[in-house]
């Protein structure tokens, strides 16, 4: 890994540790997968909210390999089924996801439409593993807010085929209205994917959240 990037990841990792999270640095996708594997035990129950980063690292494949008890929300046929599966995900041993942004001073920023992922991060399983490409490291919370409005949300709405202003225009309507830095400013669409906003700072439960910082671009 290039020296400047290595130093940056080490600095962010140190600040995450100061905020009572565990932090790991992976050179690339393959090492990120190895670190995640080392944090899991065969037979344990695991869940994810669906993540491009986890797929890109081969971690989704690992979780569904049969070595773990994978609680799969996509198995739900009715909305009641899906809701029950979300409930089951709360009592799994480990929840895995990425983060929309990580600030240089070790704060996580996440925005959800359904809010299942932010609730899992805030108060779900006793272990949460996040895999984060270096492209998601931002200077501060203002940059984190802008990152979601100009990169994460537009790309995710296109990926999910959701008809919103950002899926068509490539940025949140709040940016076009000059209200970009207002966290909850956004569109009026019923399909809006920005509804719940979670800032994870200093944690009370030391080591519950584990962040694997990766020296490659991953996800949105
Ligand atoms: S509030 Fe609406 S337009 Fe803005 S980023 Fe979210 S989904 Fe896109």
Q: How would you describe what is shown here?
A:
The chain is of the alpha/beta class. The protein has a single domain, classed as NagB/RpiA/CoA transferase-like (Rossmann fold), CATH 3.40.50. 39% of the residues lie in helices and 19% in strands. The strands form 2 sheets. It has a 6-stranded parallel beta sheet, with helices on both faces. It has a 4-stranded mixed beta sheet with strand order 8-5-6-9, with helices on both faces. The mean pLDDT is 96. Residues 149, 153, 157, 164-166, 172-174, 186-187, 189, 192-194 line the site of iron/sulfur cluster (SF4).
Write the layout of secondary structure elements.
Layout: H1 3-18, E1 22-26, H2 29-39, E2 45-48, H3 52-56, H4 59-63, E3 69-70, H5 79-90, E4 94-97, E5 101-103, E6 108-112, H6 116-123, E7 128-133, E8 137-138, H7 141-160, H8 165-169, H9 173-176, E9 196-200, E10 209-214
Parallel strand pairs: 1-10, 2-3, 2-4, 4-7, 5-8, 7-10
Antiparallel strand pairs: 5-6, 6-9
């Amino acid at each position: 890994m290039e020296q400047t990037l290595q130093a940056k990841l080490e600095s962010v990792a140190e600040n995450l540790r100061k905020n009572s999270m565990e932090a790991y640095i992976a050179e690339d996708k393959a090492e990120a997968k190895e670190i995640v594997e080392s944090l899991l035990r065969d037979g344990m129950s695991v869940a994810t909210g669906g993540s491009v980063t986890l797929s890109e690292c081969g971690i989704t494949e690992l979780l569904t390999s049969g070595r773990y008890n994978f609680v799969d929300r996509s198995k739900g046929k009715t909305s009641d089924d899906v809701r029950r599966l979300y409930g089951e995900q709360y009592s799994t041993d480990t929840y895995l996801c990425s983060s929309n942004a990580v600030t240089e001073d070790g704060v996580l920023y996440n925005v959800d439409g359904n809010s299942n992922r932010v609730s899992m991060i805030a108060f779900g399983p006793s272990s949460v593993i996040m895999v984060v490409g270096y492209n998601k490291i931002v200077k501060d919370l203002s940059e984190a807010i802008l990152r979601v409005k100009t990169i994460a949300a537009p790309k995710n709405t296109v990926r999910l085929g959701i008809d919103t202003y950002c899926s068509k225009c490539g940025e949140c309507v709040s940016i076009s209205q000059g209200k970009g830095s207002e966290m909850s400013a956004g569109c009026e669409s019923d399909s809006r994917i920005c509804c719940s906003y979670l800032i994870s700072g200093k944690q009370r439960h030391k080591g519950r959240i584990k962040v694997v910082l990766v020296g490659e671009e991953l996800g949105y």
